[in-house]
Design brief:
heterodimer, A: 218 residues, alpha/beta, 2 domains, 3 helices, elongated, B: 266 residues, Rossmann fold, eight-stranded mixed beta sheet, 12 helices
Chain lengths: 218, 266
């Protein structure tokens, strides 16, 4: 009963703990306790928020979470919230991925999800970190990442980087031809008749607008 | 041991039923024993396309519910003695069959027949899941239209998740003169998005409509129509032969561009 059920993300504001979509509550508690014990000296007394995804917690469950935090770390609990609409839907494929989360110097970098296939129409990826796709993102597919999005292929679907409000996030693709691009709270759509670019490009925010620039080797 | 091939598309009206019937005829002409299963429960029409409607006594739901033996429900084709149809039920809904029942039926039919072709309903719901349940291979049919290609992409994603490992694309109703004018998606536009292997291109051909209305298939007389020839070529590719895609454009440079997508050896 020590399955991969929660993951940590550090920001300047503190630590956010994400409860994975398909983990049950007992798994969350045991994984949380184990990870806190490993990392309590690293986190010190930072503030922590817990994102429980689309779960509805009972009062007992909330207390159990608070107790696990105070027992196993010096973290100061700020908030337990649910990102209802699009919770941290980290898929089960990811859980089996067994990546070590949060390297020591990665406190402000977060982590990355690598997808080694083409995302097809109707497929949706939500990840609280960077997303790297080794393949295409077809029209009708969507990626939402708290960090950056890198597509080693053609991006024609929807990409939303900096989902948690980070306007410094960017979207990079070998061929950037998205239906729509979003960075933090800023949205832009493709022109109605656009040709495919013939070189890698990246998108970033400047003056509250999404800008696109070519990536050139100097 | 036979092979179960599901013919699917996502979008309706792109030519699944037409393709199922023609590949069935083509395979029988290549000396195979073939069963066509109409999995489009509630909207059956493979029987009409085959001209066998008046012979239906039992259907797919009768078989899976055990009201009759498979053999009793199979209808032999009028012209080809090794071609059989297992019709869909018209008065039931898609939940009348489960994926497990389809798997069991597929295994049973594979014992005796070389090919079992399953005509899939449109959509991605229960009917689709039933139709793909026992399949070893999928043929995805699309027309050169953006919405059909989008739906095909969705279907391919679902097939990948369902762990059907072999699938090929059929582009139906291509109109070369429209492509030339720039008014229709080109073959390589479609392949660039879908990124799967192409097994055939069927031109838009009025002979299809004429013969279908008579309950006949163009593949029965391959040399009488471009579509008949194109279906026969798909049959040969299914049987492992290397046959180049027809050159609809009479244009060598187009043809050589195509080669790189379908990996034609010789
Ligand atoms: N290559 C073609 N050329 C001309 N008409 C076609 C062609 N393929 C299909 N059709 C016609 O299109 C209609 C829909 O085909 P059908 O096979 O019933 O599609 P589906 O089973 O996918 O709904 C039918 O009227 C059929 O005769
Ligand atoms: Mg049909």
């Amino acid at each position: 009963m020590n399955k991969y059920a929660v993951e940590f993300k550090g920001t300047k504001e503190g630590v956010t703990i994400y409860c994975l979509e398909d983990a049950d509550f007992a798994e969350i508690l045991s994984d949380l306790a184990a990870k806190l014990q490993q990392r309590s000296s690293f986190f010190g007394d930072a503030t922590v928020s817990i994102d429980v995804g689309n779960r509805e917690l009972t009062d007992e469950e909330r207390e159990a979470l608070m107790e696990t935090i105070t027992k196993n770390s010096r973290l100061r609990l700020k908030d337990i919230f649910s990102s209802q609409e699009r919770g941290p839907a980290v898929t089960s494929a990811k859980r089996q991925g067994e990546m070590e989360d949060l390297a020591l110097d990665g406190f402000t970098e977060g982590r990355a999800l690598v997808i080694k296939r083409t995302l097809r129409s109707g497929q949706y990826i939500r990840f609280p970190g960077h997303v790297i796709v080794l393949g295409d993102v077809n029209p009708g597919a969507e990626i939402a990442a708290d960090g950056d999005i890198y597509v080693f292929g053609t991006l024609r679907g929807i990409a939303h980087a900096g989902m948690n409000g980070d306007r410094t996030a960017s979207v990079v693709a070998l061929r950037l031809a998205p239906t729509q691009l979003r960075i933090a709270d800023i949205i832009s759509r493709a022109p109605d008749h656009a040709d495919l670019p013939d070189q890698p490009e990246y998108a970033y925010v400047q003056d509250l607008r999404i800008m696109i620039a070519a990536i050139t080797a100097k | 041991m036979g092979e179960v091939i599901v013919i699917t598309s996502g979008k309706g009206g792109v030519g699944k039923t037409t393709t199922t019937a023609n590949l069935g005829v083509g395979l029988v002409l290549a000396k195979k024993k073939v069963v066509l299963i109409d999995a489009d429960i509630g909207l059956r029409n493979l029987d009409v396309v085959m001209g066998l409607e008046n012979r239906i006594v039992y259907d797919l739901v009768d078989v899976v519910e055990g009201h009759c033996r498979v053999k009793q429900a199979l209808i032999r084709d009028k012209r080809f003695e090794n071609l059989f149809l297992l019709p869909a039920a018209q008065t039931r809904d898609k939940n009348a069959v489960s994926p497990e029942q389809m798997k069991k039926l597929s295994l049973e039919l594979k014992e005796e027949y070389d090919f079992i072709l399953v005509d899939c309903p449109a959509g991605i719901e229960q009917g689709f899941r039933n139709a793909i349940a026992g399949a070893d291979r999928a043929l995805i049919v699309t027309t050169p239209e953006v919405s059909a290609v989008r739906d095909a992409d969705r279907i391919i994603g679902l097939l990948e998740a369902a762990e059907i490992k072999t699938f090929h694309l059929i582009i139906n109703r291509l109109r070369p003169e429209m492509v030339k004018r720039g008014d229709m998606l080109d073959i390589d536009d479609i392949l660039e998005i879908l990124a799967i292997d192409l097994i055939g291109v069927i031109p838009d051909d009025e002979k299809i409509i004429i013969s279908t209305n008579r309950g006949e298939q163009v593949a029965a007389n391959a040399n009488d129509s471009p579509a008949g020839k194109a279906y026969t070529n798909i049959v040969r590719r299914l049987l492992g032969e290397t046959v180049p895609i027809m050159d609809f454009y009479q244009n060598q440079s187009f043809f050589s561009r195509l080669k790189k997508f379908i990996g034609l050896g010789g």
